[in-house]
Amino acid sequence: NDPDILIADEPTTALDVTVQAQILELLAKLKARKGMSMLFITHDLGIVRKIADRVCVMTKGKIVESGPTKDIFANPQHAYTKHLLAAEPKGKPPAANADAKAVMTGKDIKVWFPIRRGFFRRTVDNVKAVDGIDVTVRAGQTLGVVGESGSGKTTLGLALARMISSTGTIQFDGRDINQLSFNAMRPLRRELQIVFQDPFGSLSPRMSIAEIIEEGLRIHEPKLTPDQRDDKVVDVLKEVGLDPETRNRYPHEFSGGQRQRVAIARAMVLNPRFVMLDEPTSALDMSVQAQVVDLLRNLQAKHDLAYLFISHDLKVIRALANDVIVMRNGQIVETGPSEQIFGSPQTDYTRALISAAFRIETAPTGVVSE
């Protein structure tokens, strides 16, 4: 249509870092070739710093500060702008502790999905979503799992939590659980919890917040009275920073960050030991993201939780993870302490992910998926 102006509303929010860099490069080329203006709406300050000539900062429906990008980032004037800039994940990675107790270990984990063709639907090949991975998640520690979309991150997490079938050895607290039936796994479910990516889709709109949080208690602690369940709901809401008086409201009455706190409360009310966090901050804006990361860090320190943190946001991984595994095409291409991975990456693929995340630079052809 050869527009004079292109309005890009969060065009990279749901994308992994390498695809994000490719999309931004494409938009820049289109803008230059067509001589058009672009209104770019985003909550990612790194992107703003990289591509914008001028910035407008909005809150509560009003522009509270505007000006050249360099001036806004170097010398913010409004308190809200300062708050946004301070919310960016910063700092060195937390130190890894190899002596911490192993809560979850996996050896030679494989999840292959058969490709069937022909009239008799014979298996002609397999999609190797997870292909022979070893992993250890320790008490009080966070293992970050990074990689492009389709690299097998979430599939690995679901296999460890026994939400999908896999081959290999999976040990939880020293016990082999990969041979247990799904019914036999049920008593262990309270200790293996998941916080999903989408706070808008992971909570039932037909249930109140109290009903959502206490649902697990009804299954795993059936002897509790209604008053006892309600007391536990109140306590866990306080722990995640939500007002217990709001527990009879419904999910649509809460913001995205508040809904994610509800999802975290639903997991924490059962006193788990292992928590899989699948992109828990990707749908949140920068300031809310920082608050959720701080909450997760505090809960981990308080309860000695083992986290498997899956994310394409390497800034969040760097702020939270003690150890990191880098996945590509179902395999680990690099693993080690977080400080080593971010300070001295050994593979071109890891370097490409880091460049895309922190400098929003595209990788040479063939290093990452196009």
Describe the protein in words.
It is a single chain. This protein has 370 residues and is α/β, with parallel strands linked by helices. It has two domains: 5-86, Rossmann fold (3-Layer(aba) Sandwich); 102-359, P-loop containing nucleotide triphosphate hydrolases (Rossmann fold, 3-Layer(aba) Sandwich), CATH 3.40.50. 36% of the residues lie in helices and 26% in strands. The strands form four sheets. The protein has a six-stranded mixed sheet, with helices on both faces. A hairpin with a 2-residue loop joins strand 8 (167-172) and strand 9. The protein is globular and about 65 Å long.
Query: End-to-end span in angstroms?
Result: 25 Å
Order of helices and strands: EHEHEEHHEEEHEEHEHHHEHEHEEHH
What Rg do the Cα atoms give? Answer: 22 Å
Mind telling me the CATH superfamily name of the largest domain?
P-loop containing nucleotide triphosphate hydrolases
Number of domains: 2
Structural class: alpha/beta
Strand order of the largest sheet: 10-11-12-7-13-14
By CATH, the architecture of the largest domain is named: 3-Layer(aba) Sandwich
As for the CATH topology of the largest domain, it is Rossmann fold
Mean residue pLDDT: 91
Query: Main beta sheet: strand number and arrangement?
Result: 6 strands, mixed
| Helix content estimate | 25-40%
Shape: globular
Number of continuous helical runs: 13
Q: CATH class of the largest domain, please? A: Alpha Beta
Low-confidence blocks of residues: none
Number of strands: 14
Strand content: 25-35%
